[in-house]
C-alpha cells in the first residue's frame, strides 16, 4: 500500500507545471526512500529527473516499490482543483490499477478526492553518471528565466560562456545579435540574489533556447538555479526543492554553433 | 415615463455579466414595484429570473407598466463604458422606442449618455409555483463557483448529493472520477463563509455542469449562494442582491444519471 | 560618433510602445539638439512627431547629424529585454551600418547589448507650420484613453465638440448613439486631474476612432494630454515627455460627418 501525505500541496502543483510541457506520459517511481521520476521529452532530446525524498512528506508509507504510469496533463488538471493551501495525499492499493489524489482544505471543511486510472508506460531508467563539470553557475532562477525568454525573441539558440568574471548568454537572429552578461556577485543583501561562478576552465556551449525556456517553468520551485557545464557533456539545469529534493534537466549541447535550429 | 436612478451603478454591470452568456435578447419589465426579467436560455433548458425592487433605487419613477426588449450584449457593451463608481440612470419616454442609459461620475465632471433602440421580443411569463424543497444548501458563492469550474475539467455533469453532514459534488470523465465534499460548518468567523444545510430528506440529483458554470457568473453579486433541491423539481440557484432582490436560476435535473452530455 | 545615455530607460520603452502600432519603419534623426522622429503611418493618414532634447539625457554625444533607419517592431523586441530600472545607452560609430543598444541594471551586475542593422528608409521631412487653434483641451490622458476605447465599442468615428463649458465626444453605431461630456474643471486636488478648456470659438470635428485609439498608446508617457482643434486643420494630440520633449500626433478631420468608416 502507498500513502504519501504532503502538507505543502502547492509544491506538487508546481512540480507538475514544471515538467508537463516537456513530458506527456511518465512513470512515477515510489520506493522507501522517496518519490521520483525520470523521463525523456517527446523528441528524446532532453531528460528530466525529479526526486522528492520521503523525509519531506508528513506521512510516507510505501510497502513495496511501485511504478505508476500517468499522463501529466491529467495529473495537472486534477491538481488545478487543489487549493494552494490544501494538504495533498496520494494513495494506491497494492495491485490496484488506479491512484487517488485527496485534497484537504486547511480547515478540513472541504475534502476532494480524484481517482485516476494508471497507464502502462514503457521506459528504461538511465543511469546518470556523476561527472566533473568545467564550470558551475548559481544564479537567481528568475534572472535565468528572464534571459532565456528575452533571447528567444531574437534567436533560436543560446551560447552560454563562463569565465571567472561572469557568465555570458549570446544569441543571433535576423534582426541582430544580443549578449547578456551577468557578473559574479556574492556581496548581495539576500543570498538568493547572488551570482556565483565555480570554474575549473572556461567553457562555451550552445543550446536550443526552446528547451531552456521549458526548463525555466520550474522557477517557482526555487529562487536559485544551478547550471553545470562541461564540453561535450549535457548541461544540467537544477532547481532544488526545499528540504525534499530537486528537479534536474539535462540537455546535450549543439555541436555546430552556427547550425540553424529549424524546429522552432 | 420611466426614470430609475441607481447610485451603485456597478450592480447593474454585474447583473448583465451574470445573465448575458445565458440569454441573448430579453424583455425587461418595469412596474411600480420594481425592475424584473424572466427569460429562458437560448436552448430552452434553464430559466433566469431577476428582480430589483423599486426601494433599492435612489429614485424610481414608473408611470405605467413597461416591457423593454433589449439585446443583452448591447447593454453589456454600453455598461462597460460606465465607471465602477458611476451613478446609472435609465430613462424612457412613454411610447418611445428607445431607452437611454446615463452615467454620472461621482464628481459630476463626466457625464455619458447612451441611447439604444428597443426590440420587439416575444415572450411568455411563466408562473413559478412556490415549492417545498427536500434540501437547501447555503454556501460561499466563490466556493460553489470553484467547485463547478474544477469538476468541468474532469466531466460534463455533476451529481449533487445532500446529507445532514454536508453536500457532495461528483463527476466522472475519461480521466477518472472526482468527488468534492463540503461539510456543514456554521462556526466560522464570518457568516458568509458558513456552509449551512437545511434538509428534510436526502437528495441526489444530476445536472449539466455547463449550465452550473453559467450560473456562477453571478457570484460577484453576492458572497453566498443558495441551492434548493427536490427530486424531479428544477434546482434553484439563487444569488441575493443586497437590499434589492435576487437573481434565480432554474435548471431541470437530468433524469438518467449515467446519460452522456453530448452538448459540451 | 553617437552615444546617448538615458538613465530612465523605461521612457524609451514607452516611446516605442506609443508609436510602433502606427509606424513600421522610420528614420530616427540625431543632431546636437536632440533625438527626433517624424513619420507618417502606413496608410499616410496620421503623422507622428517625437522629440527628446539632448538636455534630458545623462550623456549626449552626437558629433554629426545622423539619420538611422530602424524597424520599430525590432526595436520594441530589443527594448522588451531591458528591465524597467535599466539605464539604456544608444551607440553608433561614424559610417557604421549598425546601432547598439546597451542595457545596464541599476546594480551593474547585468549588462546586455543588442546590435541591430540599420535600414535605408526614404522619407521626407514635412515642415509643420505653427498654427492658431480654435480650441485647446487639456485633460487627464487616462480619461481620454478610456473615452476613445469606450466609444469604439459603439461606433467608428468620434465627433469632438468644444464649448466653454466642456468637451463632448460623440459616436453613433448600429446599437445606438453615445455622448460623453467632460466639464471644464480646474479646482481639483491634483493639477493632472484637471480638465481645462482654452477656446476662441466653438469647434466640432469628426475623426476616425481607430487612430485616436492608436494615439492613446502614448498615455503611459504623461498624465495629461493636450488636444488642439481648428476647423480644417489636423488635430494635434500631444503627450509631453517630462523635461525632455513630446510626442505629437496629427490627424486630419473627416470632412463629412456622416461618412461611414469602412476601414475598421
TrEMBL record, chains A, B, C:
Q: Which InterPro entries does the UniProt entry name for this protein? A: DNA_clamp_sf, Pr_cel_nuc_antig, Pr_cel_nuc_antig_C, Pr_cel_nuc_antig_CS, Pr_cel_nuc_antig_N
Annotated keywords: DNA replication, DNA-binding, Nucleus
DNA-binding keyword on record: yes
Q: Which domain of life is it from?
A: Eukaryota
BP-aspect Gene Ontology terms: leading strand elongation; mismatch repair; regulation of DNA replication; translesion synthesis
Domain Proliferating cell nuclear antigen PCNA C-terminal residues, every copy: 127-254
Question: Gene Ontology terms, cellular component aspect?
Answer: PCNA complex
Cellular compartments annotated = Nucleus
The GO terms describing molecular function are:
DNA binding; DNA polymerase processivity factor activity
UniProt xrefs under Gene3D superfamilies: 3.70.10.10
Record flagged with keyword Protein biosynthesis: no
Please list the residue ranges annotated as the Proliferating cell nuclear antigen PCNA N-terminal domain. Answer: 1-124
Q: Which PANTHER family does this chain map to?
A: PROLIFERATING CELL NUCLEAR ANTIGEN
The record's similarity note reads:
Belongs to the PCNA family.
Query: What does the function comment of this entry state?
Result: This protein is an auxiliary protein of DNA polymerase delta and is involved in the control of eukaryotic DNA replication by increasing the polymerase's processivity during elongation of the leading strand. This protein is an auxiliary protein of DNA polymerase delta and is involved in the control of eukaryotic DNA replication by increasing the polymerase's processibility during elongation of the leading strand.
The name on file for this protein is DNA sliding clamp PCNA
Identify the taxonomic lineage of the organism of origin: Eukaryota, Viridiplantae, Streptophyta, Embryophyta, Tracheophyta
